[in-house]
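lol ok so funny story. i was supposed to be doing the assay writeup but got distracted and ended up predicting the structure for this chain instead. priorities right. anyway since i did it might as well share w the group, maybe its usefull for someone
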Amino acid sequence: MSWYSAFQNQSHWDTLKTISKVLLYAVALLVIVTLIGGLRQDGYIIETFRMPQSYMDAGVSGEVLAMMIVEEYEQLKEDIKSSKEDNMTIGVSSSPDLNLQIMGFGFSTNSLSYHLKELFNIPVNSIGGNMVDIDSTLRLTLRMSGYEPLAYEVDYSEWDRLQALDEIVDQAAEGLLENTDPYRLAVHRYQRKEYAEAENIIRGILRKHPDDKKWAYLAWGNLKLKQQQEDMAQEFYQEALAIDPNFANAQMAQGWMHYTHGDYEEAIRYFEKLSTRNDKNRFGSINGLAYANMSLGNLDRAEEYFQMNVKNSPKNIWAYQNYSYFMLNTKKDTAGSLRVLQQAGEELGNTADYYVALSSKYGIQNEVDSAYHYARKGLQYDPENVGCLQTVINYHYYKEDNHEALNQYLLRLNQVYKEGEYDAFMRMRNLNLLAITDYKRGEYELSLIHAQEAIDLIPSNPYPYSTKAEAYALMDNHEAFYTEIEKALERGLPLNNFMDQEPYIRYQNDPRLKSLIKKYTDQNKLLG
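and the output, tada:
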């Protein structure tokens, strides 16, 4: 071997040694950081449950049950959208668990963290328990460090055993959530209109979780708003702000509450506080400032805010949609509206939102079929895109060509609205459309349910009341029709515009309805 080859081989060997050292140091650093994170982690370790042999034989071991509960717990938190910070983990760490092999022995950083905590007497939070199956009744006892045992029982004499298992897993997941994050469970309850249960959870937060009091009052305010008890909602929002004057969620709730009631100056006061924050509330607050100024007739100021959202959020389709809507419907500037949508298309690229912009552009130009085509194309990219769904819904609604398809799109859109933080007016409008579609399909009871959900969102809007009236008319329940149509007239429904349409056409010559229309027409004239 020449001296050059030897030198070259030695040089390669030194390089390999250097790379190996760097990699070893990197792995060691990663393990140390992960272990420190594990030691600091304020989570729980899920343990294997003791199970009946019959379930073990069916493949449902204690480990499987533990993971089923954890997965349901995580899914529950995912479904309950909230901006409240969530640091709690159960079963797994917030970072991937590293599986290591040292001298032939395998271990994980999670298990090592567990043993290190024991070694240094750091409290280890754990969850465990047992399940028994006796006389067609499934019983689960859940034990969680720091809390009283939880017991659940499901009678499955008329069910399948696996259905009973799913039910008890759901109950256990909610029990874990009540211990670890009762605010989210309260939200879950009032979203399902289980108001009494939600209030009990909120009272528990105020007693047991002093650090979360502002969140408890926020939940209570939202709950009372859903129950149409707006004065009480206002009081609870103020309680939350008394604890934390900068609490963005309460400020936003107050702002939109004042906006809904036409108190635009007060709404602006709340939105201005939020508009200076560099967080996710900024977009909504600037949008609120734009709409409040628009309602006050300050159109130049409103346009400045719409432009601000476009500049700050160039990838957000709603920045363009809101601005375009304002230009078209308020400023009556069709060319300006099209320019905004053209800008959106240039910014968004080949995405579902790009097709929203393209669809809107054709809609403004009254090329309805093209608008529908591009909205459907956008749904291929994102089946839950709000803008595309809304366009498809509008198309089917005004074409009146496929009530079944319209119903399915509305159900999908309202599920998207339920899972995200969307404007209450948008949700109300689509629930009302869903109710109309229901009664056109002959689903009268379902129509009444969806119309009431729309009313619960914005009690001051007249249209869901008229939808309930229409459903009752088609059911030949005339007293209920008059009750609901009067509520709609009280809130400003221009009923004379619809008297040549079904089902009002059957009441055209009815003295009672004529009297109601005259009464509220005269009242509106007096009010100016």
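The longest strand covers residues 126-134. Confidence is low (pLDDT under 50) at residues 1-7, 30-36, 92-111.
back to the writeup now i swear
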